[in-house]
């Protein structure tokens, strides 16, 4: 039997077990991004700033995104089992280094390696899944399961991290990953055929390695600019200006190179399809709007003083909302309902989430008040993800449609990075504005200020403190209360901006001509990322 006709799994492996193994490998491959589920713990462990943690996440993401375009050719050379073992080995070695080292620069390098390993493993898994699916119905369901796994991976690993870090140090997250990888290695060795392939072996010639280096470099540079831009005061910083010029030069060289090559890393001719570009923009905008949950979790943890373990019900609500809505959305897509109408519905649901949050964000709220809005958030992401990707892929010309996956994941990366940039900038702006408004009313001539201070001081005196301690404690409590109110007000202002932006997007989608008639067209040869 030809190797490419041989089944990937051994004959004694039942179909349900094969699918379970595939799903398990996919979830574990996404573990690298789970490390960032507790940014405060990571920043404290390595002794770095929150923006450094953000950039580490972006760097890992950029590494995965860019390698996927290169990996499209490499998977046709290696046998799947051998390639998976290489990915597991890379991930294990980098995790072992991170377990023993607290060096931040070394962690960033390991993050790049883990991004490559994640892309490598995901690529094999996706080929294993979608090479088996021929009907449109099966492929839509496959899309839904894959993207549901991506969406729920973050809250699932946030729960895991919260439980583990409650009793152990941060580096034990790497130890947990190593154990998972070792167990997975044994499963792969036992269950998969060593000679099985997806297609005939194609030698690694005319692979655009230089284009890949361009792609990785300018993605890392734009990520740095977006994350550190606000901290360095954007164009007032010579570092940002130089990096901006470097990014433009790299991007220009990359575009020129890809247009000249017969076998480019990414075929840029796909941008000639107008509706495909609209799909990319939708994916980009979607990731900006969905990138605010970190602010919500931060509010629950800081303002409401909720222990991470008690945030678990909120994460479970996100998981349930995502899973249920994706299953229902897949049915609507298969029924032939307009993709753009489903997308508009998803944005409306997300607008409901922001409206709900505006009503309940306060210093007296309870964690249970945010289970429903985060469930609504999960529903909105579940409704939006597959239709936007399906719209984008269906809009691409058939000859270059496989490139849609590479550009789609880059749009998600760019949207994710931009959401953090918008968050950093808007939070600073809204906090400054809220601080100015609050300080205007808190002056020594305001009689309410002295009354409030006296009441706080009296509360400390009644608790048995002396006059000196009570006075100092009352001033400290008032400052804490002011900072809390500034955070609440700035959070509401940020949600206001996001809600207005969503309404603008909804109106534009309703008014845009020509996008209502896009029909679902998912080709067998295309693999989503």
From TrEMBL:
The UniProt record lists the keyword Membrane: yes
Transmembrane feature ranges: 21-41, 53-71, 83-100, 106-128, 140-160, 172-191, 212-231, 237-256, 276-300, 312-334, 339-358, 370-393, 400-422, 497-515
Keyword Nuclease applies: no
Pfam families xrefs: MFS_1
Membrane topology, record value: Multi-pass membrane protein
Keyword entries, A-Z: Membrane, Transmembrane, Transmembrane helix, Transport
Protein location: Membrane
Name this polypeptide is given: MFS transporter
Lineage: Bacteria, Pseudomonadati, Bacteroidota, Flavobacteriia, Flavobacteriales
């Amino acid at each position: 039997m030809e190797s490419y006709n041989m089944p990937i799994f051994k004959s004694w492996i039942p179909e349900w077990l094969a699918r379970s193994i595939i799903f398990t490998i996919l979830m574990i491959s996404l573990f690298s991004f789970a490390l960032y589920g507790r940014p405060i713990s990571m920043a404290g462990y390595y002794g770095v700033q929150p923006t450094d943690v953000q950039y580490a996440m972006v760097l890992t993401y950029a590494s995965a995104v860019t390698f996927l375009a290169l990996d499209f050719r490499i998977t046709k050379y290696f046998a799947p089992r051998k390639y998976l073992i290489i990915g597991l080995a890379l991930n294990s070695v980098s995790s072992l280094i991170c377990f023993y080292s607290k060096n931040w620069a070394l962690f960033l390098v390991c993050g790049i390696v883990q991004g490559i390993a994640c892309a490598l493993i995901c690529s094999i898994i996706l080929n294993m899944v979608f090479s088996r699916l021929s009907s449109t119905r099966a492929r839509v369901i496959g899309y839904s399961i894959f993207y549901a796994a991506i969406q729920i991976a973050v809250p699932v690993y946030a729960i895991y991290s919260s439980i583990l870090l409650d009793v152990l140090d941060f580096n034990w997250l790497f130890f947990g990953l190593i154990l998972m990888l070792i167990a997975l290695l044994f499963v792969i060795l036992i269950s998969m055929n060593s000679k099985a392939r997806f297609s005939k072996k194609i030698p690694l010639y005319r692979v655009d390695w230089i284009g890949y280096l361009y792609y990785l470099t300018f993605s890392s540079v734009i990520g740095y600019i977006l994350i550190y831009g606000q901290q360095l005061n954007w164009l007032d910083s010579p570092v940002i200006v130089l990096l901006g010029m470097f990014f433009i030069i790299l991007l220009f060289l990359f575009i020129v190179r890809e247009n000249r090559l017969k076998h480019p890393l990414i075929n840029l001719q796909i941008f000639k399809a107008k509706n495909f570009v609209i799909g990319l923009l939708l994916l980009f905008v979607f990731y900006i709007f969905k990138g605010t949950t970190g602010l919500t979790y931060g509010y629950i943890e800081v303002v409401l003083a909720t222990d991470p373990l008690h945030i678990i019900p909120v994460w479970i609500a996100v998981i349930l909302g995502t899973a249920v809505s994706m299953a229902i959305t897949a049915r609507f897509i298969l029924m032939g309902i307009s993709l753009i109408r489903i997308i508009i519905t998803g944005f409306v649901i997300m607008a409901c989430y922001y409206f709900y949050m505006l009503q309940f964000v306060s210093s007296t709220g309870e964690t249970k008040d945010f289970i429903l809005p985060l469930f609504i958030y999960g529903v909105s992401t579940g409704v939006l993800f597959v239709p936007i990707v399906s719209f984008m892929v269906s809009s691409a010309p058939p000859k270059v449609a496989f490139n849609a996956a590479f550009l789609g994941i880059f749009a998600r990366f760019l949207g994710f990075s931009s959401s953090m940039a918008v968050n950093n900038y808007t939070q600073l702006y809204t906090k400054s504005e809220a601080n100015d408004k609050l300080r205007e009313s808190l002056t020594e001539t305001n009689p309410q200020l002295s009354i409030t201070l006296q009441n706080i001081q009296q509360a400390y005196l009644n608790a048995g403190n002396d006059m000196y301690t009570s006075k100092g404690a009352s001033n400290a409590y008032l400052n804490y209360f002011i900072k809390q109110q500034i955070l609440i007000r700035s959070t509401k202002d940020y949600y206001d901006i996001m809600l207005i932006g969503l309404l603008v997007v909804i109106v534009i989608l309703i008014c845009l001509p020509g996008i209502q008639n896009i029909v679902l067209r998912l080709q067998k040869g295309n693999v989503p990322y």
